[in-house]
Write a structure and sequence with these properties.
Layout lengths: L2 H12 L1 H8 L3 E3 L2 E3 L16 E5 L2 E5 L4 E5 L7 E5 L13 E10 L2 E9 L6 E8 L9 E2 L5 E3 L19 E4 L5 E6 L5 E5 L13 E4 L16 E9 L2 E8 L13 E7 L20 E4 L2 E2 L9 E13 L2 E9 L3 E7 L1 E3 L2 E3 L15 E7 L6 H5 L3 E10 L6 E7 L8 E5 L5 E5 L6 E5 L8 E7 L10 E7 L2 E6 L4 E5 L10 E5 L9 H4 L8 E7 L4
Antiparallel strand pairs: 1-2, 3-4, 4-5, 5-6, 7-8, 8-9, 9-10, 9-11, 12-13, 13-14, 14-15, 16-17, 17-18, 18-19, 20-21, 21-22, 22-23, 24-25, 26-27, 26-29, 26-37, 27-28, 29-30, 31-32, 32-36, 33-34, 35-36
Pfam families: Glyco_hydro_43, Ricin_B_lectin
Keywords: Glycosidase, Hydrolase
GO biological process, one term: carbohydrate metabolic process
Amino acid sequence: MTMRIKRNLLICIMGATLFALLFSSIVFMGGKMTKAAQLPLTGSTNQHDPTLFKDGDTYYISATGGGLYRSNSLNGPWIGIGGVPKAEWTNEVSRGGLWAPHVRKVGDTFYYYYSQSNFGTNDSAIGVKTTKTPGDPSSWTDLGRPIIASGNMSRLTGETHTTMNAIDAAVHQDRNGTWWIVWGSHFDGIYVQQLEEDMVTLVPGTRKLVASRDSERFPVPQPNFNRIEGPAIFERDGYYYLVVAWDWCCRGNGNDNTYKVVIGRSQTIDGPYLDKGGVDMAQGGGSIILNSRTTQEGVTPAGLHRAPGGMDFFIEDGTYYMVYHSYRPQTVLGIREMDWHDHWPYFYEDDGGPYDLRDGAYYKLVNQDGIISDPNTLQNPVAGNRCLTAVNEGNRGNLNVIQSECNDAQEQIWQLEQEYDGFYRLRSTLDDRAYCLTMSNASGADYTDVSLKPCRGGDNPLQQWYFDDTGHGFHRLVVKNANLALEIENENGVIGTAVVGNYRRDGDHQAGNLTQAAKWPPQQWKFTMVAPGDN
């Protein structure tokens, strides 16, 4: 490193304390300062699988169980006003309850899509209610029959595709004015199908699988291991976005839930939906954009909100909001404004979400403490004392990457450089800052070597990384094309262990709750800012 660069880095480090104060209240995004935080909500907010809609100046929420709530603002107070009437046909669903409603206004009519299901089975059906006066609970009129059914309930519709799970329906209108319905949970995955103009009749021959955890590498051994549900579709700037929840919800102890919000995008509403690494969501792909997080100041209830899921999307005055639930450990409503980076959404986080990291800043990458057999660490992960470290093995340019004990040495300082479309490059501060973190090849093979190679701006996908939000302020670094995550080769955390590229563990259906929480410690990294940089 030249004397000039050393001097600049020292100045940056001296200013880090002041910058930290500023950074806690703003986020740098391509020259824009923004803070799109979780909204502080008041009133009745213990809702599961919420849907948000508006009539005139009044906002409404409905949720699992069929309750209706209203407010004059998104922040509340949310006041219960009753519930939608129960449909006679739903008595056919053994032990079934009304789940996961979704409301959209078409013309002057509000359509209320909902599910009835026997928990733990695919004996399920999707129904529809309508009204022109949503604030009057008794006015919601049921169609009188389901429009989609599965399992033993298929007899209600004559459905021949009995192995899917007919729950969690949502609708979206494509740019040609055609409405589509998306639904599914576990079992066969997530489907989309075109609707007739009446909003309740399915167009034959248009059904398509758009998302599943099942893949060639990780085949689903049984239906409950296809842990994907709660789909929703929205559109922005030429892309359709498919958002789903991965893993488990609805456990007796809310702290045991492992939901997370995952996304892909497509230029056509029926897919294929690709994640940031270009993997089709129908083949196990998906990029995590929201996981367990601690609330920002002023949000109640304060503290850690686990396992976000049950999403709906609400757009007002050009602002996109995600409406969802999480666990405290009881169910609690959440509404978050979405920010955008090169056509990918993200969510602000004080502790540093994937796009809250500053372009040009200097960081240490600290690995998660704990090994995979420690359930307490997996539930509440904390940073350890092992850092991503560049090692000069004797000759200039012969640089390797290992994990070693954190010591604030220059070898452990990396500059984050924004590339494009959600990808970043990590530049080592060794050897005149000419070398970047690089996957050796794009084969996708396990334990692919990771080292430092001369930085090549914009034309080397093996130096381009995107960051999955794996919760609690941790990230998983995934390289473009190869679809491999940065991993400590020895998960027991032996100091000096090599760093390699390995497959993303959230597709490993045999690994139980460890990967359901996306808490594979060797792939968990926390960015700790050392200095803000020059950008």
